[in-house]
Every structure is written in structure tokens, then in C-alpha cells.
Amino acid sequence: MAIDQPMIELVLDSLACQRGGRPVFEGLSVRVKAGHLLYLKGANGCGKSTLLRILGGLLAPSSGTVSYDGTVLQQHDIPFSAYALYLGHQNALKPIWTLRQNCDALCRIMTGRDAPVERLLETAEHFDLSRLLDQPVRYFSSGQKHRAALMRFGLIDRPVWLMDEPTVGLDSKNRDALAGLMEKKLASGGIILAATHDPVAAAGTDFDVSAFAPASDNSGPFSSAFLEDWA
Predict the structure, then answer these.
(1) Confidence (pLDDT) at 163
(2) Which pLDDT band holds residue 108 (cuts at 50, 70, 90)?
(3) What are the φ and ψ backbone dihedral angles of 163, each rounded to 5 degrees?
(4) Are strands 37-41 and 63-68 parallel, antiparallel or unpaired?
(5) What region holds the ABC transporter domain (predicted)?
(6) In terms of Cα–Cα distance, which of 23, 54, 18 is closest to 160?
(7) What mean pLDDT do residues 211-231 have?
(8) Residue ranges per domain, the chain?
(9) 78 pLDDT more than 60
(10) pLDDT, mean of residues 64-84
């Protein structure tokens, strides 16, 4: 069952993560209140994408805790997907399925039901994809695929959104469409964490992930370039 409350707080306490046998970040702590947008900043390889994957439940931290509304998720066996909706670099669309089929499948996984028809139509129109709802995704351009992937944020209710480079491939019209969706989420008391070099909404706070880099050099068996590929 999804957790969805009007006033929430997300707390990361002393998070650390290792990739490829080397630490990516350590001692990472931040508190994000309802209605706030946190822009994850820092050089390539500092762990922005890794942090989002941890919060999305795709990676486990080496140490530290994630608390949502006062509950430490790891201690209560609560799946991260119960509170967060994640979109990474991959669009996670099945090419042979239509856009409608992809949306229905994702909604069934996340909510146990097909996408609500009215909401599906509204979200498709919001991202200028109405005419493509019944077309196989394999015929979409890269920009259309990215907008199709962004539709999840209009279809599935989760109080926390995790977005990795959400503006990639978007023209100004669709950047505005995304900004409108994000601003609506924040106004309703949601939380957004976004790793992006192109801030799409004005009401955000920068958070420098690189400030939590381990105090060590890169002289070990793995180079910084390797870490950039994984972080």
C-alpha cells in the first residue's frame, strides 16, 4: 500500500555507499520537508544518480538510514517504492507495447490497477502524446519516449519523486509542461529530489553531493573515471 500523507518529511541520516569496492560518498545527511524541491549538484561521479537509486530502493546503502515521516524504512521492512516514484536514465518502456499498454502495466505493478482512463488521457495531453497513446513505443522518437516515461508522475500517486536528468530531450514547451507538473506536486505537499544540470522549476534548493566525498585519493585499483560510470 502506498504511503500518501499531506505533511511529510524525508530524512537521510549518515548515508554511505560503495560501488566497485570504493566509497562514493559517506556521512550524507539531509532533511527535506513537504513542499520542497532539492536539486542534487556536484561533479560527475560524485554519487547523484547513486543516491537517487538508493532512495528508489534499487541500491542498498553501505550504512545510514532513510526515514519517511518519522519511520526508518529499513527497520520496518517498508519498500522504498511505497513512498517514492523513480525515473532514471532508462525510460523503462517495452518497445512492442503501445504507450497505453506501457502505462497500464506500470500502474498495475505500482498500484494493482490499470491506469485510470481519465487521468491517462489528461497526462498524455499534458505531454502532447494523446495521438500516440495506441502506437507502439518503438516508433517514438527519443524525446517522445522520454515524455512517455515522465507520464508516470502524472499517473501514480507517491509523495516523493526521484528524477534523474528529467529535462533531457525536452523542448521548451515540454520543459514548461514538466515544470507545471512539478510545481503542482510541490503545492500539494510533495517532495522532489532531482539530479539535473538544467533546473526546471524555480522553487528549489541546491544540495552538493560532492561535499560528502570520502577523504581519500584515487590511487587504488579503480580510477575516478570508473566511478563516474557507476555513480
Answers:
(1) 96
(2) very high
(3) -130, 120
(4) unpaired
(5) 10-230
(6) 54
(7) 54
(8) 1-83+160-177+188-231, 95-157
(9) yes
(10) 84
Query: How far is it, in rounded angstroms, from Cα 106 to Cα 221?
Result: 40
pLDDT at 201: 66
DSSP the chain: -----SS-EEEEEEEEEEETTEEEEEEEEEEEETT-EEEEE-STTSSHHHHHHHHTTSS--SEEEEEETTEEGGGGT--GGGTEEEE-SS----TTSBHHHHHHHHHHHHHSSPPPHHHHHHHHHHTT-GGGTTSBGGGS-HHHHHHHHHTHHHHS--SEEEEESTTTT--HHHHHHHHHHHHHHHHTT-EEEEE-SS---SSEEEEEGGGG--S--S-SSS-HHHHHHH-
| Overall fold of domain 1-83+160-177+188-231 | Rossmann fold (3.40.50)
Enter the C-alpha cell of residue 101: 499498454
Residue 218 scores a pLDDT above 80 = no
Residue with cell 547513486: 50
Q: How would you label 64-81 residue by residue, b for 16+ Cβ within 10 Å and e otherwise?
A: bebbbeeeebeeeebebb
